Amino acid sequence: MCDCRRYEYLVPVYAFDPDAHHNRETVLVWTEKKEADRQERLEKRKATEKKTVEICHPAEFKQNTIECTQKVNLLVGSQVVTSVSNTSVQFSMTEDLEDGKLSESLTKEIELKARVQEGKESTAQPAEAKGELESNKDAEAEVPPLQSNRVTEVEDDRNVLVSTVPVLDKTEASAESKFVFGEKEMEHLNTILGKYVGTHNFHNFTAWIKAEDPSAKRYILSFEACEVIEVEGMQFVRCTVLGQSFMLHQICKMIGMAIAIMRGYAPESIIDTALRRDTDVNVPMAPELGLFLDECFYTGYNKKFKNTHDEVSQKGFEKEIADFKREVIYSHIQLTEVKDGTMVMWLHSLNDRNYPVLLQPGKQHQLK
């Protein structure tokens, strides 16, 4: 059993920016699932388009004409013949597949042609009938081909989706925001994190543990923001916490409260209130992405068996460990943050509706 553990938490710099709100950050919300759904919709469109073209293929013209005529009979309530021109069938099938009904102009044209075929009207069509046919032909000529119309619709759909949910460039956030995490911000953050150091009752920073439970008391040896690092163009604040043991969600809640204070949603005194045994506070919990175990310390074991056993520690492997963290762990955190926008989505929920404790300073409600 180790004596204490040290955890690291990488916090994106923009999380501390008070002006970084959801209107700008939602551009990150473009997950693989949404992309897969979009591709599925496009494939369904293409399949429908292909099916429509096959229906209007000349080899199957006769059967398609009969089906089209049956639909016309149901809609217009009259008996029509099956000898309709190929162009008219394609136009009617397009209308029928897209809207589930025939256009008024097409219905008139089919009725007129049917009357001519059955001999109900003279071969020399009246001037009125000729005028209707001419106008229908002109209208039909204005209708774009089926294939080009469908392809244009698919392209427009793709353009609308991409413009609605753009992908954020790695440098876009820093270019739009003037926020810089400098020495002043680092000092402020360390002041906040320092409030957790010592033995406190952390019942508000975990789940299912009551204030009177002895296990709610934990000893934090140190908690500090060490440096600002850059991973693939994205800046993170590297925070380290050293403690004897931790409860479920404890570190994420401590980070979440610190972020809320840094963004100006709550005063620093809220930490003192949350650490009291006689209060119940709904503490914001930061995402688990960014948190990982850095090292376990076996001080007691090494001291007891120093004469007979080798020391259990990471000494001598500092460089390999640092390279592994940067190349594997840090890189994974950065890629996941860019892809899923985990911290961004959490920032959307960081408001006084979800956490009444985050009311504006001066309006803090009385906690009991």
Mean pLDDT: 75
Major sheet details: 5 strands, antiparallel
Identify the overall geometry. Answer: elongated
Distance between the termini: 38 Å
Which strands sit side by side, in order, in the main sheet? Answer: 2-3-4-1-5
Question: What sequence of helices (H) and strands (E) makes up the elements?
Answer: EHHHHHHHHHEEEHHEHHH
Instruction: Please mark out the parts with pLDDT under 50 across 5 or more consecutive residues, or reply none.
Output: 22-30, 78-102, 120-125, 139-175, 362-368
Structural class of the helix and strand makeup? alpha+beta
Helix percentage range: 40-55%
EC number: 5.4.99.12
Family: Belongs to the tRNA pseudouridine synthase TruA family.
Enzyme class: isomerase
Keywords: Isomerase, tRNA processing
What key attributes describe this structure?
368 residues; alpha+beta; five-stranded antiparallel beta sheet; 14 helices; 5 strands; elongated; disordered C terminus
Give structural notes.
A hairpin with a 2-residue loop joins strand 3 and strand 4 (234-243). This protein has 14 helices and 5 strands. The protein has helices at 22-25, 32-55, 61-76, 86-99, 104-118, 127-142, 146-164, 172-176, 183-194, 250-262, 269-274, 299-304, 318-340, 342-349; strands spanning 4-12, 198-201, 217-231, 234-243, 291-297. Helix 2 (32-55) runs antiparallel to helix 7 (146-164). The protein has a 5-stranded antiparallel sheet with strand order 2-3-4-1-5. Residues 195-298 form the Pseudouridine synthase I TruA alpha/beta domain. Residues 129-140 have a biased composition (Basic and acidic residues). Keywords: Isomerase, tRNA processing.
